[in-house]
Each structure stands twice: as structure tokens, then as C-alpha cells.
Design a protein that fits this description.
This protein is extended. A hairpin with a 2-residue loop joins strand 11 and strand 12 (157-161). The chain has a single domain (31-185), classed as Methylamine Dehydrogenase, Chain H. The chain is mainly beta. Helix content is 12%, strand content 39%. It has a four-stranded antiparallel beta sheet with strand order 1-2-3-4, with no helix packed on it. It has helices spanning 2-20, 107-110; strands spanning 42-47, 53-57, 60-64, 69-72, 83-88, 94-98, 101-105, 117-120, 131-136, 142-146, 149-154, 157-161, 170-175, 181-185.
Length: 189
């Protein structure tokens, strides 16, 4: 009888645990033009050190504070209305890649309303103005992928990098362990 009660208790506990272990439901909320985005297709999303979500797409860039969107476009100084990538450096400066140049917003200014943007392109040493990928490494260097190769922000200037990939279209840059950069491009990895 004791064995039977023990098995019933074990089975009851297992059944209760199974009920608690069922799949969790996730809540999704959709944001679109109705909620304040200036575009439907979001190509990039980035969360900065203050918690703002920055989105980029064909129509500019938006900053979401959890409640509302603040939109930025060429009227605000962006070099193009098509934002392709966004990242932040160790100083908190925001870097915004577009199809027509790279923009930098100094941290002390983007925390307030207007963005104080500086724009960079081929004249400043970038291989192309069509910015396709951005990553800031753990040494504080900004790596820039373009439609014609890579560059790096070093000592306040851009340096185009000779690459075994040639002038290929850079799709994505990731930093791996040991200061390794992984670069996907039209010529391979």
C-alpha cells in the first residue's frame, strides 16, 4: 500500500510539474507608421547605452524611448534618407551608415533633441559612401564596411584597408574572440 501511495504521489508531482513546464507565451507588439515610424521596412535596429532603440530604414532613422518615436531625416542632417546600419562607439557617439555616407552624432548632443551630425564619405578616406556594415571593436576602433571594401576610423581619420577580399561588397562585420574580425562579403568570408 505504501508503494502504491508513493507512486501516486510521484505521478501527481510529475503531472503538476508538466503543467508548469508548458511552453511560455510571448507577447509581441507591432509598431508601424500609425505609431510614429517614418517607414514600414526597418533595415536596422540598435539599442544604445542609454536604452534608446534606434531604427533605420528607407525614410530615415527613429529613436524610440519606450513610449514614442522621434524621427530624423535629411532635414536633420542625415546624408541620405536611406539608413543601412547604426552602432555606437566607446565614447557613446552614434554612427549612422547610409547609402550616401557615414554620419556621426556626438553623445552629448544626441541625448538632447537635435542631432549634431558630421558626415563622412570617399573624400574623407572611405572606400565608398555606400555604408553597409558597422562594428566598434573592444579596442575602440570603428570598422566600416562599404559596397567597395572596408575602412577603419583611426586617430580621427578613415583609412581604407587593402583586403584579400578586394573591393568586394561587405555585408556584415562581427568581432570574435581574440580581436578577430569576421567579415562576410560578395567574395566570401
Amino acid at each position: 500500500m505504501i508503494r502504491k501511495c508513493r507512486w501516486i504521489c510521484i505521478l501527481t508531482c510529475i503531472c503538476m510539474w508538466m503543467g508548469l513546464a508548458r511552453a511560455q507565451t510571448y507577447n509581441f507588439r507591432n509598431y508601424s507608421v500609425k505609431e510614429g515610424l517614418p517607414f514600414i521596412h526597418v533595415f536596422e535596429i540598435y539599442q544604445d547605452h542609454l536604452g534608446y532603440l534606434w531604427t533605420g530604414g528607407y525614410g530615415g532613422m527613429s529613436r524610440f524611448n519606450g513610449t514614442e518615436f522621434r524621427n530624423f531625416s535629411e532635414k536633420d542632417g542625415l546624408s541620405s534618407h536611406w539608413v543601412t546600419c547604426i552602432t555606437e562607439d566607446a565614447k557613446g557617439d552614434l554612427w549612422i551608415g547610409t547609402v550616401d555616407g557615414l554620419n556621426r552624432s556626438v553623445y552629448s548632443t544626441y541625448a538632447n533633441e537635435p542631432l549634431n551630425l558630421t558626415s563622412y564619405n570617399e573624400k574623407d578616406g572611405l572606400p565608398s559612401g555606400n555604408i553597409t556594415a558597422l562594428v566598434c571593436d573592444d579596442r575602440g576602433r570603428l570598422w566600416v564596411g562599404t559596397s567597395r571594401g572596408m575602412g577603419v576610423w583611426r586617430d580621427s581619420i578613415f583609412v581604407s584597408l587593402p583586403s584579400p577580399l578586394g573591393n568586394s561588397h561587405i555585408h556584415r562585420i562581427l568581432q570574435g574572440p581574440g580581436h578577430t574580425l569576421w567579415v562576410s562579403s560578395s567574395a566570401g568570408l
